[in-house]
Amino acid sequence: MKNIYSTFLIILLSISISKYAYSANDDDIYKKIDLFSEVLDKINKEYVEDINQSEVMDAAINGVLQSLDPYSAYMSPESFENMQTETSGEFGGLGIEVSMEAGVVKVISPIDGSPADEVGVKAGDYIVKINEHQVQGKTLTEAVDLMRGPVGSDIEITVRRKGVRKAIVFKITREVIKIQSVKSQKINENIGYIRLTAFNENSSSQIKKKINEFTKDKKIKGYILDLRNNPGGLLSQAIKISDFFLSNGEIVSTKSRKESENRRWFANKGDIINGKVLIVLINYGSASASEIVAGALKDNKRAILIGENTYGKGSVQSIIHLKNNGAIRLTISKYYLPSGKSISEVGITPDIEVAEGDDEFRINTEKDNQLNFAIKLLNG
Q1: Any bridge partners for residue 327, and if so which?
Q2: pLDDT tens per residue across span 254-310
Q3: Which residues are catalytic?
Q4: Dihedral angle at the C-alpha atoms of 240, 319, 138, 168, nearest 10 degrees?
Q5: How far is Cα 136 from Cα 284, in angstroms, rounded to an integer?
């Protein structure tokens, strides 16, 4: 058994050997591998209950990846298949984008109109309990698996919210999540309002179509681009959408371990709204690609940002397929704004800070302080 563990771990940890080879000699590396093998062997022989060796090894792989950052993770073949189903745009679940922080699941953003959004789950909430299961000590993949279930079934999650002493318990019914990435409407007959909830493959074409429709109306004097509770998505879409409103200047750059893979993107000539006033709404649920767009427009002095500081997810993850039909999500580079600042753990600060309001706040309703402020600003 020990020989089997040793052989497997040498393969497993070879992904990190190159990282340590520059800071320690080979003897130290293999001593650590042998130690890890010994610990697993002791667990297998001495632990109070029989263990599932496959699950233990999955946890070991995931532990290596999650020690790097909150966004790198291992996906078993089953988890990877579920992820591919979810990214198709229609899936069953609660409708939240999550990450792991301090041993618990942190909500990056609830999806508009999803079961989680409807009951009041908010960006920044910490999920500490799923049904009767404590989240502490579980991996992100394990926690997400607990939240999955048949459409129509109920789940109870317990969250901790900043500024609220008592834990909040939500009972949610799982539903089929349909993502409509672009919504639009005309406000007060003279404002074009566009809400972007995710950066999917067709988001830029949808936005362009909506703006072209607004452009035909000569009464439109300005635009509001709503990126609140948008957890991000495709980098290519963030670049295209930023470019719509810019005639020149840098949009974003990425820096990776390999200098040859560093890249910078610049705007092409032409502003799709012909220089009209643009206001961008952001909040703590605006992350990743949303922050790229908001940061590019702010740094190039093209838009006024209203709302709250964004999430601060400034890293690029790549999905790398594995031989067992699973995959790893690995951070390969970081985003940098035109100003040269990193988004990671800092986020984007609005030009005008406007709080969301009380716990009954909902986007684009009477209690939407941020949208109401933007409307007043556009109308002078």
Answers
A1: 75, 321
A2: 999 988 889 999 999 999 999 999 999 999 999 999 999 999 999 999 999 999 999
A3: 288, 299, 313
A4: 20
A5: 23
